[in-house]
Design the sequence.
């Protein structure tokens, strides 16, 4: 049994994800494996539904199995997010392709750009440093440095979030020397982050905004934008009091611990901790610190990384270590064959007894997943067993 993988958040699962699954099968892949962020996501927030619910939604809408992207990678910047997911997928013997949505479905262009970015010669590093000093975010500075040093790429190619993430997936595949084939698939509907309600194929941002609004118009929109089963569960959606918890965690943290998070640098921990004292509101605090260089998503991630206890040093070590594949949900039909096909060079964690297979860095990495699950349970007032696997 061979799989096409999808690196995902499914926050929540919507018609665009269902479209991606359909295109994967049209391209000849019979089985789909999702590696999905758990209860906290890369935009620096708690997920709108529990990871087991979102994993079940994926199975109900066409995936064969869902494994968890460890929390340390799920809440890290794009390079580490992509690197962690590809690191795990490359250790599974039957993953043959990696599909991702993008604005330009040109595999050669993705691989060529990834190779150029991976070289990082002296001229590139000098240009990168200059653009960072000018106050640009890392991604913008990196892209500007690439163009400045004469790289033959289309500037528009690196101007959209999905293409940027697709390049990071390809960089990670090259770094792992992976045999997995990149499979870019043209997106339909709204662009990433578009908050406008755009019918059947609307962005996750627009859908989350509508879920929070909860009015009659929003519910009508959600019925159009979501598969029926997912829409039915939006009736039970409640805001998760994560933001207050994140501020409390920031106020009690040692500044050196905040500085050790993957997204923090250049003394940013001092500004965040100082401003939190006089701006004890999540959105107000971030509005005081955000800038061209320190984007809102980056600041939100720092607070989340601190809340979970994610350290850059640890994440880099995990990238160089054998880890694990933790199953969240599996298609009930052929479940034994699916699980057998996922068994590879790293432990498959499908039940509590499998936990004993973990050693050293893998054990530390999984301990963070346990903590993230426990914290989400407290925030939502629910109990879920971390070692559960859903069969749907």
Sequence:
């Amino acid at each position: 049994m061979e799989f096409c993988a999808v690196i995902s958040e499914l926050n929540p699962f919507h018609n665009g994800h269902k479209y991606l699954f359909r295109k994967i099968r049209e391209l000849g892949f019979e089985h789909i494996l999702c590696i999905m962020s758990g209860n906290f996501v890369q935009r620096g927030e708690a997920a709108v539904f529990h990871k087991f619910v979102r994993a079940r939604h994926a199975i109900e809408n066409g995936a064969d199995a869902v494994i968890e992207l460890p929390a340390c990678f799920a809440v890290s910047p794009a390079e580490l997010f992509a690197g962690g997911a590809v690191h795990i997928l490359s250790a599974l013997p039957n993953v043959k392709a990696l599909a991702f949505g993008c604005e330009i479905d040109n595999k050669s262009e993705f691989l060529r750009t990834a190779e150029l970015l991976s070289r990082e010669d002296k001229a590139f590093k000098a240009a990168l440093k200059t653009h960072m000093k000018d106050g640009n975010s890392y991604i913008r500075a990196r892209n500007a440095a690439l163009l400045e040093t004469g790289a033959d790429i289309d500037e528009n190619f690196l101007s959209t979030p999905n293409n940027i993430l697709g390049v990071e997936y390809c960089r990670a595949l090259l770094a792992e020397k992976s045999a997995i084939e990149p499979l870019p698939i043209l997106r339909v509907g709204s662009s990433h982050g578009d908050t406008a309600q755009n019918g059947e194929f609307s962005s996750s941002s627009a859908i989350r905004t509508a879920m929070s609004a909860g009015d009659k118009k929003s519910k009508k929109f959600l019925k159009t934008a979501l598969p029926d089963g997912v829409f039915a569960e939006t009736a039970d959606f409640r805001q998760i009091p994560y933001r207050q918890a994140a501020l409390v965690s920031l106020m009690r943290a040692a500044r050196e611990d905040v500085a050790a998070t993957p997204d923090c640098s250049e003394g940013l921990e001092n500004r965040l901790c100082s401003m939190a004292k006089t701006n004890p509101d999540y959105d107000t605090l971030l509005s005081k610190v955000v800038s061209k260089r320190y984007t809102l998503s980056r600041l939100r991630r720092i607070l989340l990384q601190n809340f979970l206890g994610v350290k850059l040093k640890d994440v880099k070590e995990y990238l160089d270590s054998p880890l694990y594949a933790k199953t969240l949900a599996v298609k009930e039909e052929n479940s034994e064959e699916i699980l057998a096909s996922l068994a590879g060079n790293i432990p498959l964690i499908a039940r509590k007894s499998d936990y004993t297979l973990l050693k050293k860095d893998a054990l530390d990495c999984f301990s963070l997943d346990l903590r993230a699950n426990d914290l989400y349970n407290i925030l939502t007032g629910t109990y879920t067993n971390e070692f559960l696997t859903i069969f749907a």
Remarks:
- The radius of gyration is 20 Å.
- The chain has 19 helices and ten strands.
- The longest helix spans residues 360-380.
- Strands lie at 3-8, 32-37, 40-41, 45-46, 65-69, 95-102, 181-186, 325-330, 348-349, 390-391.
